[in-house]
Every structure is written in structure tokens, then in C-alpha cells.
# Entry
Amino acid sequence: MTTMMVVQQPQPVMVSTDSNQWSSGICDCCDDVPQCCFAFWCFPCFACKTAKDYGECLCLPLLDGFGAIPPITLALRASMRHRYGITGTICNDCVYSFFCGPCSWCQMSREMKARFQPITLINARAK
# Structure
């Protein structure tokens, strides 16, 4: 009876997207048509889902209606730029949040999809 001994375990392979730019432009809604349609038909639901996917409170985007400049959209956009190392300014975030709210949320959703890389561990057993 011979048994095989594994000398080296397989290591997880991780490919990351490291860029200091947004993966898509503010008006690139055609890059993800289902998300764009969801945002168009039910924007509050889309914003809440995107905030939850980012790790924030589900109902947080509903507070955007209480300010001249949507504070939650602005804060989440700035936070995402900081987390992913994306260059930009708070001034640009402010303009995009105020004039292009739905497009800004769609861009953030696409960015999370592009940056999210699940880790898959492979269990190899010798027979």
C-alpha cells in the first residue's frame, strides 16, 4: 500500500485590477445595461442595493433628499475613490453627485463589480 505525500499545496491565484482611474466613465451606462435599467426604473431601490453591496446601511441613500448636494452620494463616491485608490477631487465628486446622481450610482456599481475579485480555493486530494 503506497501513499502519496503532497509536498506543496496549491496556492490561490488572485488577479487584481489595480488602477488609479474609474473602470468606466460616468456616462458608460451601456457597459451594464441591466444595472442601468434597474437604476432608471427604480432609482431609490438601486441606490439602496448599491450602498448595501458596498457595506453601508441599506437605507442610507434615502437621506439624500435632505440636502442641496446629495450628501450620501457624495460621501460614498469619495469613500470609493479612497478605498480603490482612484484619483479625483471632491469638487468633481460634488458635481457628479449633484448633476448626475443616477449616473454616479451606476458608475459606482460598475466599479464595485470590476474591483470585486472572489477568492476561489481549490481542494486537491490525492487518491
Remarks:
- The helical segments are 33-41, 43-54, 71-84, 90-99, 101-115.
- The mean pLDDT is 84.
